[in-house]
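Give me the fold.
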Amino acid sequence: MKFGDELETCDLKVLDISDLEKLAAQNSRLLPSWQADKLEAEAKKHWDLFYKRNENRFFKDRHWTTREFKELLQIEDGGRKSLLEVGCGTGNLIYPLLEEGLNMEFWVCDISPRALDIVRQHPLYNEDVVHPVLADITQPGSLSKISEVNIATLVFVLSALHPKKMKDAVFNVCAKLRPGGTLLFRDYARWDMTQLRFGPGRKIEENFYARQDGTRSYFFTIEEVDELFREGGLEKITNIYIKRRTINKKENIDVPRYFVQAKYTKPHA
């Protein structure tokens, strides 16, 4: 299964009767609070198990980033650009950039030690260029080992956090941006197909769900994203809904997907 090349801006998805019935079914039985608390306490464990099962096979390399985030190709100060990939997983964002020959220094962090081990095993890994850091970005000081960067990415990362911890995570990441630096964001939009597919017993709270493997997912509006980054001290460049298509010709699947894509900058003092 893959995303189609077509990319377009859109409005928030309009729910039909079938969608409303699915949401009503989700509300008929919520995930027990004790189980939700357990998932929060064991978040690191579940992501480590995720990468133990899937290694580098689950997430596809993100070859679209320089096409849709052209800031990755621009250097204003004439020096070597540095990038922080937050929630790097197995390096699906940075290694395509290295393949394209970008002269960058990469800081990468993840909550999973196993994911970082896989980053180090990549054929393109070079310890002088790629610096893996184990970090829970919701915790104070978690990024203290990381230098200030020109660009930070949050691509399908915030949605995995408990909503109550998102502000702390954004604050920690924004603190690592140099003045004039850029934050690049993409994540699940409200009413995306994956949200509507959750059944009864998987909803933790509004727009926040538990997957079968113990990981979790939140679904955003552009207003929520804007509030998070403005409170983190950034200024908006763009913040939009985008629509892509998930295509699997073998299984005759062709469905729309909805995401929030945003760019913010850190103002000069």
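The CA atoms of residues 106 and 130 lie 5 Å apart.
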